[in-house]
């Protein structure tokens, strides 16, 4: 499947087959700043339709409902959840029966997003809130410096899902002297707090894309939560970190982004696997 698709991810998701990917990771931009008109749309397969989707199938779009007054959501924050909800509903649909969604978000928004994801997936399908902790940049002087992001993990099924803990990279013990030389040399598996540095502004990994996330974090997700040959989707793909992690470990990827810059960076970054 290895593909990069440019476009609004909602349209791309609506054209995807149900239960067609095993792993989804997304890192949406907080608050698009756009007012989302409350228009409910439906994409219908139609041989005469004006849009061509996957596999050459044709579709037309039907407007189901436009809100009276039609001006959009109340405030900027409503806008963000209103923007996310239909995309997350589609993400749930396209996820395979034993699939996982990883939702990467800012500590100020995570609580609202969790409530919404609980509604879409069901609370029993919430598995972990992973804290990605780093330590870089300026330090606040009037409160504790916020140096973490949150990654919510949901599974489509509360019991049946991929969790290859043996595939996980290992981390050093905090007190190696207490565990013996053999264990200390092997290291231990991480908890739900993942210490990992940000992408170094001067390092090899850097693509120049401002919001690029570290390969180490994505490789861990891909290796533990999918199997070789499975399909990995990122529909806020940015610089394509998810795609590189997937390809490097023998998974297939579908990367979606609407920005010209993101597509340019990804085409270069993922050229070997396209
Ligand atoms: C925070 S960045 C993702 C960064 C990525 N995780 C990485 O490692 O490079 C979010 C991306 O979402 C894209 N985006 C925002 N709204 C979108 C939409 N409606 N459809 C597709 N892409 C969108 C932006 O262009 C941006 O590249």
From TrEMBL:
Task: Identify the EC number(s).
Answer: 2.1.1.72
PROSITE patterns in the record = N6_MTASE (PS00092)
Q: Which controlled-vocabulary keywords does the entry list?
A: Methyltransferase, S-adenosyl-L-methionine, Transferase
Q: Say if the entry is tagged with keyword Nuclease.
A: no
Q: Which reaction does it catalyse?
A: a 2'-deoxyadenosine in DNA + S-adenosyl-L-methionine = an N(6)-methyl-2'-deoxyadenosine in DNA + S-adenosyl-L-homocysteine + H(+)
Q: List, in alphabetical order, the Gene Ontology terms for molecular function in this entry.
A: DNA binding; N-methyltransferase activity; site-specific DNA-methyltransferase (adenine-specific) activity
Q: Which Pfam families match?
A: N6_N4_Mtase
Query: What sort of enzyme, by top EC class, is this?
Result: transferase
**Recorded superkingdom:** Bacteria
Domain (DNA methylase N-4/N-6) spans 21-267
- What GO terms in the biological process aspect are recorded for it? methylation
Keyword match S-adenosyl-L-methionine: yes
Entry-linked CDD domains:
AdoMet_MTases (cd02440)
Family indicated by similarity = Belongs to the N(4)/N(6)-methyltransferase family.
Q: What is this protein called?
A: site-specific DNA-methyltransferase (adenine-specific)
Q: Organism, per UniProt?
A: Edaphobacter dinghuensis
């Amino acid at each position: 499947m290895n593909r990069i698709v440019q476009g609004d991810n909602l349209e791309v998701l609506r054209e995807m087959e149900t239960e067609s990917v095993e792993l989804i990771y997304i890192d949406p931009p907080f608050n698009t700043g756009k007012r989302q008109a409350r228009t409910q749309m439906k994409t219908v397969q139609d041989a005469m339709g004006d849009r061509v989707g996957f596999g050459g199938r044709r579709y037309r779009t039907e407007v189901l409902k436009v809100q009276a007054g039609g001006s959009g959501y109340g405030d900027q924050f409503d806008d963000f959840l209103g923007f996310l909800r239909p995309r997350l509903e589609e993400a749930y649909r396209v996820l395979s029966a034993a699939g996982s969604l990883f939702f990467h978000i800012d500590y100020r928004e995570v609580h609202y997003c969790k409530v919404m994801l609980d509604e879409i997936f069901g609370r029993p399908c919430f598995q972990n809130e992973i804290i990605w902790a780093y330590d870089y940049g300026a330090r606040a002087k009037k409160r504790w410096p916020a140096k973490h992001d949150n990654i919510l993990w949901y599974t489509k099924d509360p019991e049946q899902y991929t969790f290859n803990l043996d595939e996980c990279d290992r981390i050093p013990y905090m007190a190696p002297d207490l565990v013996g030389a053999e264990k200390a040399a092997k290291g231990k598996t991480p908890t739900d707090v993942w210490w990992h540095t940000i992408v170094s502004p001067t390092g090899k990994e850097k693509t120049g894309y401002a919001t690029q996330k570290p390969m180490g974090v994505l490789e861990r997700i891909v290796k533990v939560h999918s199997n070789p040959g499975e399909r990995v989707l990122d529909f806020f793909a940015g610089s394509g970190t998810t795609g590189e992690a997937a390809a490097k470990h023998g998974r297939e990827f579908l990367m979606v982004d609407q920005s010209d810059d993101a597509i340019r960076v990804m085409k270069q970054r993922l050229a070997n696997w396209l």
